[in-house]
Amino acid sequence: MRDIELRIRYERFGEVIVSYCIPNVLRFFLSIATVMLGTVIFLTKALALAPFFFILGYVCILLTITYQTAISRDPFNPLTLILSLGLLRFGLPYLLFYFGAPRSGAQNLIRLLSLTESHLILSHILWIIGLNALIFGWFAFPRRVSDPVDPFDFSIGPYATVFAGLLFLFGTANIATFVHLNADILQAVKTGSFRGQQITPGTGIYWYLGLSTISAASVMAATIIARSRAWYHVALVPGLVAMGVLWILGGRARALTPVVIVALLVWYRWFSRPDRTVQPFRILAVGAALVPVLMWFLHLSNLYQRGFGIRSLSLSFTSFPRYVSNAVYTDIGDFQGIAGAVAVGGGVLKGNTFGVLFWPLSEGFPIGRSTGAFIVETRMGRDGFGVGPTLIGDAYVNFGLLGVIIVLSVFGLVLKWLYAQFVQHRIRPVIYAIVAVYAIRLMFESINKWSELVVVSGFTGIVVIVSVFVTTRSNPTVN
Questions:
Q1: Which of 212, 290, 377, 413 is the most exposed place for a label (fewest CB within 10 A)?
Q2: CA-CA distance, 1 to 146, in Å (whole number)?
Q3: Whether pLDDT at 208 is above 70
Q4: Same domain, 142 and 176
Q5: Same domain (yes/no): 249, 348
Q6: Are residues 284 and 383 in the same domain?
Q7: Given this model, what pLDDT does residue 145 score?
Q8: Is the separation of the CB atoms in 37 and 56 below 8 Å?
Q9: DSSP 8-state symbol, 305
């Protein structure tokens, strides 16, 4: 099925001008139709048509996941990852909520943000519009991306490990300095309550420099993978160590970031083996088995950050069943951010949040305001924290419904270009893994994670460039 495709070819004097794969064209226009129908329903508030739209939207998403995974033979390509995680984080809690599953966690969020049933339905529509706009952008990219022919080259140079080790020490020292300037280090480690600490102005630079631990762990993992044929799974160790260092700062997604980056590198090391056999059902089984482990880790981290300290480990097991019933809506699921964005209104921030794209030049200017914090301030009258609006919520609050369609389409186009460059060996695996993981965080958290992406990818690029430069200077025969 993968090798036999029906294509439309436009020719002139025997020369192929353009060639379209019909499955791509069908998904392209199906995503357009879904976006157009959702736009009409969203603007007219014709909620009676919502069930039909939901069916169409979910069919388009599921067909895209199936097709893209089959054509690339890579279940961890960016489009499949984002759509699958989208179904888990938004589709699952929406459906459970509609069918009357236990709602205690959701009801608290709905009450705190003063959300109505109309807000929930419209946010569900907006979410499907956003994902289908992403699909539209992905298939709008003119080049079809299939699985790579040649193995990926993970080598950076013999000096990469040294530079990465020095960078890891540098990042750890900056994290320790940041914690020391804002709290007692031993007390912060013991209680785990540093996340709620009032941050001293001017110390944020140490926080940004501390993100270099993610870069160092990624480079170390790539080096281990390049040098080891049989034991490349050991590359997960640097990611786990970096997670332990970052855990004290709070932010569970940030702590998991180096582990996910390294896991993606390990996957592509296995994926580039000539004797590989991708078994989707086995991958689904492993993913399903990892979900409760991930939920337990999120619960453990939540207890630790609430000040339970060492006792969090025992409490995480005894209170886990009660946590699961709420986590579907609050941790694994996350529909309150988009629902809050709908309640606030479209275009009210007039693009202010997206000023973060000019970071660090945006520092010192009144731009880059957090959409999540704005939602909490507007709906709850409180400051100091925010919800995760997702890229869809960011686009809606800043630019309105048209902004959601444009921003997500461009995002899908960029993701397709990035993946195409990677499988054609034009981007180093370590750089691709970092950008891909942060793209997922941008999608499901906020565009405000852009500054982290700039710092982590910047440090990684410096290590790669310096390592390659030193290697070529010491041995001019090396290509």
A1: 290
A2: 14
A3: yes
A4: no
A5: no
A6: no
A7: 60
A8: yes
A9: I
Inform me whether the pLDDT recorded for 34 exceeds 60. Answer: yes
Mean pLDDT calculated for residue range 40-59: 89
Q: Which two tokens stand for residue 264?
A: 């993606």
Cα 320 to Cα 188: distance, rounded to the nearest angstrom: 24
- Is position 378 within any domain? yes
Whole-angstrom distance, CA of residue 209 vs CA of residue 461: 15
How many folded domains does the chain comprise?
2
Residues 177 and 276 in one domain: yes
> Does residue 479 belong to any structural domain of this protein?
no
Q: Please state, in angstroms and rounded to a whole number, the distance separating the CA atoms of residues 221 and 227.
A: 10
CA–CA dist 417, 407 (Å, integer): 15
Structure confidence at residue 32 (pLDDT): 86
Taking 50 as the threshold, does the pLDDT of residue 15 lie above it?
no
Q: What is the pLDDT of residues 293-303, one digit of tens each?
A: 877 777 777 77
**pLDDT score recorded for residue 278:** 60
Find residue 258's DSSP bridge partners. none
Residue type at position 324: V
Query: pTM of whole model > 0.90?
Result: no
Same-domain check for residues 117 and 232:
no
143 and 185 assigned to the same domain: no
Q: How far apart (Å, rounded) are the C-alpha atoms in residues 155 and 425? A: 13
Q: Are residues 205 and 303 in the same domain?
A: yes
CA 211/CA 76 separation, integer angstroms: 25
263 pLDDT higher than 60: yes
Q: Are 47 and 31 part of one and the same domain?
A: yes
Contact in structure between 345 and 102 (CB atoms under 8 Å) = no
Q: Are 82 and 443 in contact (CB under 8 A)?
A: yes
